[in-house]
Amino acid sequence: MAERVKALVTVKTYPLPSESHGELVCTAGVREDGSFIRLYPIDYRMRPYWQWYKKYQWVELELEKNAKDPRAESYRPVSEIRPIGEPLSTKNRWAERKRYVLGKGVQTMCELQASSQGQCSLGIIRPGQVLDFKAEPADREWKPEWKKLFQQKLLFGPQQKPLERIPYTFSYVFKCEEPSCTGHTKMIVDWEVGQLYRTMRDKFGSEEVAVEKVREKFFGQICADGIDTHFFVGTIRKYGQWIILGVFWPKKEVAGRQSC
User: Distance between alpha carbon 120 and the CA centroid of its chain, in Å?
Assistant: First the structure.
């Protein structure tokens, strides 16, 4: 039975092809009590523009528990998506966003990996140390069955918006705050990573420059000394593996100094 839900969007992943929907975006966020929720599947770019939501914007929609998804936080949208107001402010070191995003506290990657998908499949972690940001070459073309799907959509379905395959896989290398942590390398699938790569490549006409610009933003800025870096993490349903869905990076609080 469907229920009406209000959720704060914190994560939008880069679109992936889908046989049933054309393409899909995994969206996750938090409810008003700070509990995590996954909204999937969402054919984001195929929906009317007024349903296009932004990160840190509240949305209302009707959801059903996804019977095909064993992950506790997963719900299937069954209605239009109605964005509410403007995205939450970044004032006072993201105080309004922190109220909800950090409402249930943080965990470590080691702790989350010790749990099953049925127990927990979404979380937010504060890495103890971010060691590196890697960009590794990936397939430049979609799999043949997905390319065939795009061709079919062009012939028989609504106009298909081009979906570009990003020819790199981006990953963070980090250690938890767990004393026994030996380190983690986790892929990041945030839409903003792929879009930044595409924008910089088109601007400078160089893949190498684009990769370096992505690294400057997601490692040099987001993981800088004065930033309180967090990762939104979640599991891949098919494999149970944890990946990074997005980043949360307010400035660090300074003891004895008023936030601005």
Answer: 16
Q: Is the pTM of this model over 0.90?
A: yes
Q: Which residue has the tokens 């942590």?
A: 181
Smallest CA-to-CA distance from 24 within 70, 73, 76 is with 76
Domain boundaries, the chain: 3-91, 105-248
What are the tens digits of pLDDT across the range 87-144? 999 999 999 999 999 999 999 999 999 988 888 999 999 999 999 999 999 999 888 8
Distance from C-alpha of 126 to C-alpha of 107, rounded to nearest angstrom: 7
> Domain 3-91, what fold?
OB fold (Dihydrolipoamide Acetyltransferase, E2P) (2.40.50)
- String of DSSP letters for 146-181: HHHHHHHHHHHSSPPPP-PPPSEEEEEEEE-SSTT-
3-state class (DSSP) for residue 31: coil
